[in-house]
Amino acid sequence: MSDRTKGETVSDSPALAIEDLHVSFSGSGGSGKVRAVDGVSIRVDPGEIVAVVGESGSGKSVTSMSTLGLLPPTASTSGSVRVGGVDVTTLDGPALRAVRGSEIAMVFQEPMTALNPAFTVGWQVAEALRLHIDGLSRKQALDRAAELLETVGIRDARRRLGQYPHELSGGLRQRVMIAMAIACEPKVLIADEATTALDVTVQAEILDLLRDLRERFGTAMLVITHNMGVVADIADRVVVMYQGKVVEEAPVEELFAGPRADYTKRLLGAVPRLRPRGDERTGEPAVAGEPAAPGEAALAIENLVVQFRGKGGAKVRAVDNVSLTVAKGEVLGLVGESGSGKSTLGRAAIGLITPASGTVRLLGDSLTGARGSALRRLRRRCGIVFQDPASSLDPRMTVGDCIAEPLVINKVGDRDERVVALLESVRLDPAVRLRYPHELSGGQRQRIGIARALALDPDLVIADEPTSALDVSVQAAVLDVFLELQARLGFACLFITHDLAVVGLVSDRVAVLNQGKLVEEGPRDQVLFDPREDYTRRLISSAPVPDPVEQRERRARAAELRAARD
Amino acid sequence: MIRFLAKRLGQAIVVILLVTVIVFLLLHSVPGGPARGILGPQASPQAIAAFNHEHGFDKSLVQQYWAFLSRLLHGDLGDSYTLNQSVGSLIGQRLPKTLVLTGLSTLVALVIAIPLGVWQGRRRRGLTDYTVTTLVFVGYATPVFFLALILVIVFTEKIPILPPQAPQAQTLGALFADSRALILPVLAGAIATVAAFSRYMRSAVLDNLAEDYVRTARAKGASERRVVWLHIMRNSLTPIIAMLGYYLPVLFSGALVIESVFNYPGMGLLFWNAAQTSDYPILLGTVLVIALATVIGSLLADIVQALVDPRVRGSIR
Q: What is d(CA B63, CA B86) in angstroms, rounded to the nearest whole number?
């Protein structure tokens, strides 16, 4: 791989040229055709990184799949996809397989499921080589696989070869995916939401790796993403897609500085940005009055420890001696990466998980000692909003029944009126109460989740990543509903999320969790803009901001921080 | 691994003990009893009382069970009332034959079922898939004895190419020497198993076809054949192996019917005849063997699963 340099491959012909691509799917049961991609043209030059952005249903993933001929048989395609001058859409069988992985390769979103769980990572990287290089022995392929793992920054590559995907962390797995993709030195690398499932610090490393591979091998990259921060961080040029069409295409700085298409303007407007709040919203709790005494806090957690049984029966502390309070009417943002224990803490806070030690007090009453009806009485005063609205609503219950269930359980009368009022308060048409969850969009479902959480007029709401599964414009609308309700009803809230910009938008105070321990806690502006701890600083500097100029500075700062840590 | 085995062994002993208790209670709650079975319906009450006293049936159930258990711990399963032989030696003679029968029919079944399931999974919703599915359901729904009778009628009377009776040989070698006579019993046992396992395999392949790693393999340039027979196969076998372990007792009960239809001198026929004469020691011994087979089957399934699936390997260490 070393002898192919950027200069050698630069030529007038693009590495990837998608021209007037149309893809439609024949609906099941002959219900007509669905147009997923409608006349898309994208050109990527050697050594260039082009980002394709859009929300779900924009056709960006279908476009990327069509470049490898990976669409299901129900898809019909017209137009051309040229990779190094060859039209991929005209190929099939062995000719198509010869291109896949060797001329054009792909990195997928979820590295856990995208790797085969039954084979070692060494075998899987070696397979990518052996499929395209004739006469490569098993031993040679493994040697080469080890080199590739080193190329993508995996230390101790020899040992890693013999490990299975489930033995690696998410970041390592994604590096393995990338090693596999670059195994045959493809001219074009497609990264389809390649960093979406990763923590921000890991995401920053993977983006660095992609940039580095581009520098070293002159690979052309098509980065499919919904994250405007990622776009600002890595792209040279941006293609904005909406409902199967390209609505705007521009160099990255131009696009962020002066979006022309209405959709781009709306999209950029919906992206939450981390800004000091200043006087826009005071740090005071929404309910006016003197600061609440500790005994009256909506939620008071003291020295909480939650243990799980880990590998070989050893006990793992998911939450390790954490103390937190959420005052009445206050929103406490709880931030942390995956595995930091933030969801566990949220569940322990309303008694869904029994802690090993420590106490949880809800509005002055101890939850940790409560049993039976006392526990239920306490839980009645809490609501919880879960991450995935699709799976946290019972598919066999109508929307109205879902929302009314807490009322039924607690024998509250006037259910219909209450359900209608709740639906109106989350800005949904009350008529949806007769429909089923699967008939609604993700944003509508999450509003129903909020309505259900508020059904009993709780004093405390636990919101566990409530907007992570949503598109940015939908997220903006849901957060807007949430903030309006919080200000009006004045409930206290523990808002759990990994998204710093969202935390910045909703919180009065912020707590940072890492590996089960509380790293830092304080007023919003202080934690997010003047953090005291290294970990918080690293976390904040890793989150890409949707502004290419600012993001370049942040990247430099983040690199310094990492260097200082090593 | 040793800790895992020790734990499973402990569980196995508890399971087997519970099985003996339940079977013991069930047998003794059945009206009639062994005295009537052996002495005949004309026996005088005195003769029956003498028989019951001789075999300890006039003692309390707890005492009887304790006597059975203490003999069992010495490796003594007792003597048959009707066959003038110890239960241990009877099982020793019969068990290998049943193992041959069930082993062969399972092997035949898997050799057919696995490729059939994979093939169907890849051609879902085609005419061939529907046809095979229909045939498989018919095979699954037909009672084993009926299926066996049809096989006998077709292959011994309509097209007389096979003998209707299983080999009556005493040794395993002689059993295989008369291998033509083995075909029908093996086939009868295999059909229901093919039906069940091709369904499991079909749905496992369908589930795996939708997995992301399949898309990755295709994106690497792997051929469809490689994707299915290497990538998907390895992941689809895990549930099949688990099922196979728990299927062992079902196979044994299938053998009971097949052995009585074909008069095959195995455990099933032994059990069948003993059940008709209330020969308690044989019934208890046979049930014990089946319980043991169940426990061993699930243990073997776990071990083989660990060999195939690295994620399981980690958790049983």
A: 21
Report the domain count for chain B. Answer: 2
Contacts of A265 (CB under 8 A, 6+ apart): A259
| Residue B194 located in a structural domain | yes
For chain A, domains (ranges, CATH) are 46-61+92-269 (3.40.50.300)
Q: What angle do CA A489, A491, A495 make, to 5 degrees?
A: 125
Distance from CA of B213 to the nearest CA of A (A): 4
DSSP, res B129: H
When pLDDT is cut at 50, 70 and 90, the band that residue A438 belongs to is confident
Please tell me the least confidently modeled range out of A178-192, A268-282, A393-407, B298-312: A268-282
Is pLDDT at A67 greater than 60 in this prediction? yes
In a domain, B80, yes or no: no
Chain A residues near residue B232 by CB distance under 8 angstroms: none
The CA–CA distances, whole Å, from B316 to A78, B5, B13 equal 52, 9, 19
In a shared domain, residues B150 and B31: no
DSSP label of B230: I
> Would you say A323 and A303 are in contact if contact means Cβ atoms under 8 Å apart?
yes
Residues B115 and B241 in one domain: yes
Query: Predicted confidence band at B57 (pLDDT cuts at 50, 70, 90)?
Result: confident
- Residues of B within 8 A of A177 (CB-CB) are 216
Q: In what order do the strands lie in the sheet with A299-309?
A: A315-326, A299-309, A357-362, A365-366
Stated length of chain B? 317
Q: Which domain holds residue B253?
A: 89-315
By CA distance, what is A113's nearest residue in B?
A: B212
Q: Give domain status of residue B82, yes or no.
A: no
Measure B224 CA to nearest chain A CA, in Å.
9
Whether residue B78 is contained in a domain is answered as no
pLDDT per position as a tens digit, A293-312:
545 788 999 999 998 876 65
Tokens (6 digits) for B89? 């030696």
DSSP string over A365-386: EESTT--HHHHHHHHHTEEEE-
CB contact under 8 A, A117 and B231: no
Q: Are A177 and A114 in contact (CB under 8 A)?
A: yes
Q: What is the distance in angstroms between the Cα of B313 and the nearest Cα belonging to chain A?
A: 11
CA atoms within 13 A on the CB side of A66: 33
Of the candidates A97, A106, A180, which has its C-beta nearest B223's C-beta? A97
Looking at residue A223, its pLDDT comes to: 95
Among chain A, residues having any CB pair with chain B shorter than 8 Å are 68, 70, 94, 97-102, 105-106, 108, 110, 113-120, 127-128, 131-132, 164, 166-167, 177, 180, 311-312
The yes-or-no verdict on residue A483 having pLDDT over 50 is yes
Q: Which of A286-295, A403-412, B227-236 has the lowest mean pLDDT?
A: A286-295
Q: Is B219 on the interface with A (CB under 8 A)?
A: yes
Nearest to A95 by CA among A107, A83, A106: A83
